[in-house]
Design brief:
Number of helices of chain B: 2
Order of helices and strands of chain B: EHEHEEEEE
CATH architecture of chain B: 2-Layer Sandwich
Radius of gyration of chain B: 20 Å
Number of domains of chain B: 1
Shape of chain B: flat
Oligomer: heterodimer
Number of helices of chain A: 9
Strand order of the largest sheet of chain A: 4-3-5-2-6-7-8
Mean pLDDT of chain B: 89
Structural class of chain B: alpha+beta
Distance between the termini of chain B: 47 Å
Low-confidence stretches of chain A: none
Helix content of chain A: 25-40%
Number of strands of chain A: 8
Strand content of chain A: 15-25%
CATH topology of chain B: hypothetical protein PF0899 fold
Low-confidence stretches of chain B: 1-5
Distance between the termini of chain A: 49 Å
Number of strands of chain B: 7
CATH class of chain B: Alpha Beta
Largest sheet of chain A: 7 strands, parallel
Largest interface: A-B, 60 and 47 residues
Largest sheet of chain B: 3 strands, mixed
Shape of chain A: globular
Chain lengths: 221, 130
Amino acid sequence: MEIKIMKNILDRNQNKAGEIREMMKENGVCMINFISSPGAGKTTLLERICEKLAGKYSTGVIEGDVTTDRDARRLMRFNIPIVVINTEGGCHLDSHSISKALVHFDLKKTNLLLVENVGNLICPASFDLGESFRLAVVSTTEGDDKPAKYPMVFRQAKALVLNKTDLIPYTNFNMESFRKDLRKLNSSLPLFRVSATKGEGINEFCLWLDEQIKYHIKPAG
Amino acid sequence: MVSFQDFSCPEYVKYIKMHELAIAENLVNIVKDVADGEKLSKVTKVTVCFGTMVQVVPDLFETAFRAAVDGTLACDALLDIETIPLRLRCNACNTVSEPDEYCFLCSKCGSADIEIETGRELFVKSIEGE
């Protein structure tokens, strides 16, 4: 006997993500899901964002990490609530792990929730966390072919941060070829070139981010 | 709701899930629910559809599926993976194309105003059982 099902396998994740998205809207929280490969510079970028925006918005951080709390410890100087999700080998966060982390936040007093996903460009793309939007981060030292190899992340992202631009002279990163691939994937994707360690390009990126946050924390209706 | 008393130490949540395994476990839960609802004693075949954009590796998924069905009524089920190609429809000239590489521009007129018709699927199509 054959039984037709035609159901999304990640239905359960999707449903929980939907609940989280509603909860964020009700509380006026902008939740951003940062996706990149390991070592692209997400945590350093979060440090720069916290310097610029944690004073303006009541900010919290969820740090997804395979193991250790090193990333979280780097952000502790901002004196903001941080929850570490250790996946012990798991390669992505999902909406149920986010839901467990959220009980530690006072969402009524939170405007901005920065979620650092586990470093990985494939798995996190399939798992909706209930975020307001996704940001993709790639670094010049990874090579210029990341968008072509991992299309899903770059199709879904609201913007792309190209990090470590100060290192371009020491790599074979080809900006022309990078931009050409991006045009094929997502021609309207905003691209911010930054060096998170040097602070270059951070102002422009944070101005844009500030606009997005303002839009998402507006009370519903 | 627990709120932070002080921020001198992060809070910790442990949560373990692999990609292919997470998908396989979700699949098996759906299969079990449907089989229970249909009063099947045994599931003999599970058919899933994966779009190429989801980048699930079939061999890895087979392994994860075997681990996830172990000890369930679907433990001997055949797994059939249908791969669905990326198919785009252009909103400007209505051309439908199946690009070989990940290019989201119309193959005819070059417009970026396209819809992804297929290629993002991650669903369970059907099961067979007795």
